[in-house]
Design brief:
By secondary structure, this protein is of the alpha+beta class. It is built from 2 helices and 6 strands. The protein has a 4-stranded antiparallel sheet with strand order 1-2-3-4, with no helix packed on it. A two-stranded antiparallel ribbon has the order 5-6. A hairpin with a 2-residue loop joins strand 1 and strand 2. Helix 1 crosses helix 2.
Length: 119
């Protein structure tokens, strides 16, 4: 049986953040404080492609602080790609923990279809 799932993502799993960065060939995230244009933020620092400032993830609250100046300092699609990869990695980790097989298919529109085998 097939099901369609919509996921609203809060970034709380540091291991999945690291896995998403590896998937996208980004530098490993590091915990620290980053200077953004209008202040500072502390958390996991993720350097997205061509972004002037890193995205800063607070895994305690699940929030992301970033400043891309409405696309002038970084394309928001790069953040969306990261969020998609994070969600995929969380699902993969949870499926493995439950002993489930999972397959992944990249769709033409850029979305990713995950299928989890039920017993």
């Amino acid at each position: 049986m097939s099901h369609i799932v919509t996921i609203s993502t809060r970034i709380t799993n540091a291991a999945a953040v690291t896995a998403a960065c590896r998937r996208l060939l980004l530098p490993e995230p590091a915990h620290g404080t980053a200077k953004l244009y209008s202040g500072e933020a502390t958390g996991l620092l993720v350097q997205l492609p061509a972004w002037r400032f890193p995205a800063v993830i607070d895994t305690q609250t699940g929030t992301i602080a970033y400043d891309n100046f409405d696309g002038e300092w970084g394309e928001v699609r790069e953040l969306h790609r990261f969020l998609q990869s994070y969600a995929v990695e969380v699902v993969r980790m949870q499926a493995r923990q439950r002993g489930k097989a999972i397959t992944e298919q990249q769709l033409a529109d850029g979305s990713i279809k995950l299928s989890i085998q039920e017993d």
